[in-house]
Amino acid sequence: MKEDIQIKKILKVALYTSPLIGILAITPMFIMKTLSYDMYPRAVLSITLIIFFAWVINISIIHYWEKFEFRKSSFNIRYFVSYLLSVSFIMFAMRMRKLFLSGINTTCEIAPSHSPFATIVMAISLNTVILIILDLILLKEKKTKVEIENAQLKLKNTEALNQHLKQQIHPHFLFNSLNTLKSLINKSPDAAEDYLIRLSDFLRTSISTGKDNIVRVSDELKLCLDYLEMQKIRYGSALQFSIDIPDEIYNIGYVPVFSLQLLSENAIKHNSLTDESPLQVKIIYEEGRIIVSNNLQPKLSTETSPGMGLTNLAERYKILSGDEIIIRTSDNQFSVSIKIIGNENSNY
Asked: 19-27, long-range: CB within 8 Å, 24+ apart, which pairs?
């Protein structure tokens, strides 16, 4: 199917260029007064037909060259076949012009004393012009095909990288959650039961959105809220959080899946939480961005990180939107802001 489309495109080019090449080829003869001006239209028509059929010969050679996989052979062989067939046809056709242009000298009869090879020179010149145009078309088609294949390959690689980064989140989160649940079972069975219910709700929501690269702000906030409620069960008053997002943003904006949840987890993971100095996590909307901030209370020793966190989010966000996350740190405050992805990019 693609090959048929390519041949149709080349045939259109042949139809457009044949009259032009014919005019350029025949006009010098009238300028030199080799032919009478009243025969100009018939002469142009005849040379145009000859050139068009030479195009057809070259297109046929290309067709069978591709069909029988001769393309692996040297291009010199194709050029040789082209000149052999096309030039022979042009020379024969130009001699036969006498049947259509009775009484008019053909190119082979032009100044035979000093131009005995005029016909073959013109035939070679015409076929060379056709080959140049044909190769330019094929080169452009090949370049376009390569660019499309490269773009598709880049997209597949990007999607694979995004899926790899996203899938790293699940085992990491489950590992921490199960450890927390184990600890709560020993300390407070009632809290462990509440925690398990929250975890079940969180996993149910995450599964429904897990195949997506980006989700609505409302869906991501639900994931984040489930997670924070789970941590609230664990830490009690040592953890405080607030969410201040305008209602109109909930269903029109998009963010990477597990982005706000990951930022909340990052804050809890790297800071100490006590009843005397609670960790305060705030999620707010400001000028097209969602900002997740917390007061800085760094742990004296942090657990070993498997390479998740901000690096993961920054890479996924770069893949999905082309933008960067903004990280700000002061003496007592840490914040990360991500730009809300517009609805037009929701199917990226």
From this structure: 19/44, 19/48, 21/48, 21/51, 21/126, 21/129, 21/130, 22/47, 22/48, 22/50, 22/51, 25/51, 25/122, 25/125, 25/126
Q: Where in the chain is the domain with CATH 3.30.565.10?
A: 168-345
For residue 175, the 8-state DSSP code is H
User: What does the alpha-carbon distance between residue 17 and residue 262 come to, in Å, rounded to a whole number?
Assistant: 62
Residues paired with 334 in a beta bridge: 294, 329
pLDDT tens figures, 262-280: 899 888 888 888 889 899 9
Spatial separation of the C-alpha atoms in residues 266 and 287, rounded to whole Å? 23
Do the Cβ atoms of 226 and 273 come closer than 8 Å?
no
- Paired tokens of 154: 């880049």
pTM above 0.90, yes or no: no
Distance of CA 245 to the CA centre of its chain: 33
Alpha helices in the chain (DSSP H): 2-31, 40-67, 75-82, 88-95, 118-167, 169-187, 189-209, 217-235, 247-250, 259-270, 310-321
- Domain spanning 168-345 has what CATH number? 3.30.565.10
CA angle 305, 309, 311 (to 5 degrees): 105
DSSP three-state, residue 335? strand
